[in-house]
Structure formats: structure tokens, C-alpha cells
Write a structure and sequence with these properties.
- The complex is a heterodimer of chains A (478) and B (118).
- With 478 residues, chain A is mainly α.
- Chain A has a domain of 201 residues.
- Chain A contains 19 helices and two strands.
- A two-stranded antiparallel ribbon of chain A has the order 1-2.
- Chain B has 118 residues and is mainly α.
- Chain B contains four helices and no strands.
- In chain B, helix 1 runs antiparallel to helix 2 and helix 2 runs antiparallel to helix 4.
- Chain B starts with a helix and ends in a 13-residue tail after the last helix.
- Classes of the chains: A mainly alpha (478), B mainly alpha (118).
């Protein structure tokens, strides 16, 4: 049990070091490390199903002083999401980079990012969450600047400054909590928080910092340039996985560490911001002239759905409906990860073949790249939230909860957001299916197109038809 | 003593945030972020300080048996060491990007870097 937990962090970290020391074998080391850490996650699944949620005190130091790793249903689902998306993106990335210097720099940073993500999903104390959060944003920022162009570097610098601001807020909250309770272990802190001023102040600065990092409207301004100027595999990783880290932490803090501290006003504020994110992100995505920017703004909107769902979950009365909403929330996060990474990889294929990603000039793409266009359409189904995607189940539950809580405004916002999402997806498809003046040959390229297609199929079919087990699993393994 | 350090820390955070938000020069912004970061670290150290106690080093002067009553809390210091290392890394990366940007365009005014493709 214990070894598999630390292995999911150690293996990608070791891979990152090896890839940095031996850049010529970067592809081999990268794919192997991602595969092995995926296997470690698989092993963790076995032990979780056999023994239930558990934790490990690293080096034998007890919680309070030592570092504790813990695993439960939520963290294993996030770990599996990271492992699968990272594997698909890694396969795509192994043939993506044309310049060797770029490829050689990609693999160490990419593996470091995966190590940081795995560490973040497993960490059981507040300070290690800060460390993994910083490792994550450092590697993500460096990946953003990998393209080496001025726009990418300017976006990376903004991203880094915003990330620093966010993590300073988080660290200040950690300092407050330690001064009041004398421990950083999440369970020990959770036992002592209440609606006292220190808990409230800590909750506010930590949440504000994390919202900045997870780009909740109107704190999203740094995200579109950063995600749209990075190389395609990086964009996929950033949009699918890295933004989820901030959301996951808010979810953990709200539900486990500060359940009694949270006020209704705070929850309402996040619901309003989430609604704003849905409308503004979808609207900007509709206005975008470049595919990558469209996908980046769509991420802003999809994060809005997650935060609206979280706010509804926090304000729902205990009962079956609340449990169902929690499963829907997790399912929406998973579906978005697969759909968005697929979209970014497909855009990468188009950009590679056509030399640009301007939406207005996509004519003939469906003839030239049928498999990739299919992947975009499938990912679009999941982004809009049409059946049979996992997002449909999630949104259905979300609407149901909004109606039963009499939040009619949210129902309207979710409806408009879905219409706008349909509009921006069909705008892309409309152009892609436009007839090209030149006669074109269909191109099929296995390692370029398959990762996007498989990710899209996972989001649309697997998470739609095969996700019923998530609800009981979350309930029993919490 | 701890109160002074704590108050200084909070003042530094505010100065840093104000500087970061009110400056357009990238170098000044980076310095402001470093000031704010130092403020957070100072607050964290001040949290573990206890009046009249000594440094958390166990030797002949402070035997292990008396340690719990005679030394200050070592955990915040360990945390701050980590936070300082991370801060150095982040600042170095910011400076590297600032240098790279300056080399391409010859200005450090962040409002000049609006050439993001739409």
C-alpha cells in the first residue's frame, strides 16, 4: 500500500532528473516514466479497493511533525485522470517537437509537472500542498515559455507573477492556521476550525489565492494568453490538469478543513463569479479568431461550471441529492480534462498541418483530416454537455440541484452557457466542413491523431455510459 | 518582539502588493513581489517566536530533556527555509523572463507587451 503512494511521486520525479541528465533519450525516458507512474496509480487502485482509504507517514514521522500522504476516492480519481491524460499527451508530444532543443527541454519539465500534480493530489498537510502548488506552477510556467516566442514569454511572466500572488495568499493562510492551531496536518486542523476570526481570515486568504490560481472569473485574465501561446501538448496539460489542481484544493479545503467556517455569503459570491465565468468565457470563446484562444476561453467557462457546482454542493442540505451532486461535480471535472486535452491536441494537429489555427480559414479541414475533425466534434459534444458525454450527466444533476434549491438565475445562466458553447463548437465545425477550393488528399497519421481521438472517446462515451460506479465509489471511499 | 516582527511582516506584504500593482516596470514589479514574499516569511517566523526562549539547537547549553520549555518553535523556521528556497527559484525565473523580454524589445514596461495573437 504505502510504496505505491510514494512511487506515484518518485517515478515521474526520477524520470525528470534522468531526462534532464540524458536529454537525447528524453522521449524514451518520458514515456517510460509516465507509464510506470500510471502503473503505480493502478497499484494504488488495487490497495484502495482492498483496504479502503489510508495514509502513509513518510519516513516514520508521525502527523503533526512529519509529512503525511493520504489517498481516498477523490484523490485516486484525480490521479487516474492525470495518468491517462498525461500518457495520451506524452505519446502525442513524442512526435510533436520539430526542434530538438525544445524536445529536450520539454520532457524534464513535463515529468516534473506530473510529479507535482501527483504530490498535490496525495498530500495530507497544508504546507506540502503549498510546496507542490509551487512546484506545479514553476514547471507549468516554464512549459508555457517553451515556445520561446515573445508572446509566450510575456504570458509566462504574467502567469508566474499571478501564481506567486496566489501562493503568497495561500502561504499567509497557512501561517495564520499554524499560529492558531499549532499544526499543519489537514485532519488535525479540521478538528479545530470553527467560525472564529482566525479560521475565517485563513479561509478567505487561502481561497482568494487559489481562485486566482484556478482562474475563476474575473481573475482569469492571465489564463487565455498563457494557454493559447504554449506548444500544443503543453496547452493540453495546462488546460486539462493544472487548473484542476486549484479547484481540487478549494474543494478539499471547503469540504474537509473549513466545513464550519464557510459562510453563505462566501458561497454565494463564488456561485456569482462562477456564473460570470460561464457567460464571459463562453462569449469570449465565441468571439475568438484563433482555435487555441477559443479552447482557452472555453476552459474559463468550464471552470465556471465547476465552481457553480461546488457552491451548490456547499449550500445543499445533507441528503441523497447532495451526494449525487458531488459525484456529478467530480464527473464534470474528469470529463472536462479529457475533452479539453483532446481539443488542444486536435488543434495542434491542425496547426501542424495547416500552419495556422485561424478559425475563418479552416475550410477543407474535414476532408484533409477526418479523424482529427471527428475528435474535435466529439470533444465539442462533451464541452457543450450533450448526451452521451459525462458532462451531460454532470450538468443534468447540476440543473436538478439548482432547480430544487430555487436558484432560477443559475438555471438560466447554465442554459445560456450551453447555448453559447454549442455556438462556438458549431462555428468551428461549420468552417471545418466548408469545402476547400483545392482538391485535397485525406491524411491519416496514427501517433498524431490517435491520442486526441482516444481522449475524446473517453470523455464522450466512456465517462457517459460507464461512469455509474463513480457515485457509490465516492460514497464508500470518502 | 514577536509583535514587532509580525507587524513589520504585514506592512511589508502591503508595501509589496502596492508596489506590484502600481508599477508598470517589470523589474520594479519583481522587486515588489520579493518584498511581499519576505513579508509573508517574516510573519511565518514571528508565529513561532516565544519570548525569553533560545534558538532550537540541541547541545550542552540546551539538553534534550529541557528542550520543550527552553527553545522556540522550530517548525515555522523549517517552513520558512522551504519558502525562501521556493521564493529564490520563482524570483530567478521571473528575472530570466524579464531579461529575455528586454532583449527582444528593449523595454521593461509591461504594458508594451500586448502583442499576444488573438
Amino acid at each position: 500500500m504505502n510504496e505505491s503512494m510514494s512511487l506515484t511521486i518518485i517515478l515521474p520525479l526520477l524520470g525528470a532528473l534522468l531526462a534532464a541528465a540524458w536529454p537525447r533519450r528524453g522521449v524514451f525516458i518520458g514515456i517510460t516514466a509516465v507509464l510506470l507512474s500510471g502503473l503505480a496509480v493502478g497499484w494504488l487502485w488495487f490497495s484502495l479497493l482492498a483496504d479502503g482509504p489510508s495514509h502513509q507517514a513518510l519516513g516514520g514521522w508521525d502527523p503533526g511533525l512529519g509529512i503525511r500522504l493520504q489517498v481516498d476516492a477523490l484523490s485516486i480519481l484525480m490521479l487516474s485522470m492525470t495518468a491517462l491524460v498525461a500518457l495520451a499527451v506524452s505519446v502525442y508530444a513524442s512526435h510533436y517537437f520539430t526542434r530538438r532543443s525544445q524536445a529536450e527541454r520539454f520532457w524534464p519539465l513535463w515529468l516534473l509537472m506530473i510529479a507535482a500534480l501527483n504530490g498535490l493530489f496525495l498530500a495530507g498537510d497544508l504546507f506540502n500542498l503549498y510546496v507542490t502548488l509551487e512546484l506545479l506552477s514553476l514547471s507549468a510556467v516554464a512549459l508555457t515559455a517553451l515556445g520561446g516566442k515573445r508572446a509566450g514569454i510575456a504570458a509566462a511572466l504574467r502567469y508566474l507573477m499571478i501564481g506567486l500572488l496566489g501562493s503568497m495568499g495561500y502561504l499567509a493562510g497557512v501561517a495564520l492556521l499554524y499560529s492558531a492551531f499549532g499544526t499543519l496536518d489537514m485532519q488535525q486542523v479540521a478538528a479545530q476550525t470553527g467560525d472564529d476570526p482566525v479560521s475565517q481570515a485563513a479561509l478567505i486568504v487561502m481561497t482568494a489565492g487559489l481562485l486566482l490560481k484556478s482562474a475563476l472569473f474575473p481573475l482569469h485574465f492571465w489564463l487565455p494568453p498563457a494557454h493559447s501561446n504554449a506548444p500544443a501538448p503543453v496547452s493540453a496539460g495546462l488546460s486539462a490538469l493544472v487548473v484542476k489542481a486549484g479547484f481540487y484544493l478549494v474543494l478539499r479545503l471547503w469540504t474537509e478543513v473549513f466545513p464550519d467556517t464557510l459562510s453563505t455569503q462566501g458561497v454565494t459570491l463564488v456561485a456569482v463569479l462562477g456564473g460570470g465565468a460561464i457567460l464571459w468565457g463562453s462569449w469570449q470563446a465565441l468571439q475568438a479568431e484563433r482555435l487555441k484562444l477559443l479552447a482557452a476561453y472555453s476552459t474559463v467557462a468550464q471552470l465556471g461550471y465547476l465552481f457553480v457546482a461546488l457552491a451548490l454542493f456547499m449550500s445543499a442540505p445533507p441528503g441523497v441529492a447532495r451526494e449525487l451532486l458531488f459525484g456529478a461535480l467530480v464527473l464534470m471535472a474528469l470529463t472536462h480534462a479529457f475533452a479539453k486535452s483532446s481539443l488542444f491536441l486536435a488543434i495542434g494537429v491542425i496547426q501542424h498541418r495547416a500552419g495556422h489555427d485561424r478559425i475563418a480559414e479552416l475550410d477543407g479541414t474535414a476532408q484533409r483530416l477526418p479523424a482529427t475533425t471527428f475528435a474535435i466534434a466529439l470533444a465539442g459534444v462533451a464541452l457543450i454537455g450533450l448526451p452521451p458525454s459525462g458532462a451531460f450527466l454532470g450538468k443534468w444533476r447540476l440543473l436538478y440541484s439548482a432547480i430544487s434549491l430555487d436558484q432560477w438565475l443559475l438555471v438560466v445562466v447554465i442554459g445560456i452557457g450551453s447555448l453559447l458553447a454549442a455556438a462556438y463548437v458549431f462555428r468551428v465545425l461549420g468552417h471545418a466542413f466548408g469545402r476547400s477550393a483545392l482538391s485535397v488528399q485525406a491524411i491519416h497519421s496514427v501517433h498524431e491523431e490517435w491520442p486526441a481521438l482516444l481522449l475524446a472517446l473517453t470523455a464522450t462515451l466512456l465517462l457517459g455510459f460507464g461512469s455509474a460506479w463513480i457515485w457509490p465509489f465516492l460514497e464508500h471511499m470518502a | 518582539m514577536a509583535m514587532i516582527a509580525m507587524a513589520t511582516g504585514f506592512v511589508l506584504i502591503l508595501i509589496g502588493l502596492f508596489g506590484a500593482l502600481s508599477n508598470r516596470n517589470i523589474l520594479r514589479m519583481i522587486v515588489a513581489f520579493a518584498v511581499a514574499n519576505t513579508g509573508v516569511n517574516l510573519v511565518l517566523v514571528a508565529v513561532g517566536y516565544m519570548d525569553g526562549r533560545t534558538a532550537p539547537i540541541l547541545n550542552e547549553a540546551v539538553p534534550v530533556a529541557e528542550a520543550t520549555t527552553r527553545i522556540i518553535d522550530p517548525v515555522p523556521q523549517a517552513l520558512v527555509l522551504t519558502a525562501i528556497v521556493i521564493g529564490v527559484g520563482v524570483t530567478a525565473l521571473m528575472l530570466a523572463y524579464a531579461y529575455k523580454l528586454f532583449k527582444t524589445k528593449g523595454t521593461l514596461d509591461i504594458s508594451q507587451y500586448t502583442d499576444l495573437k488573438w
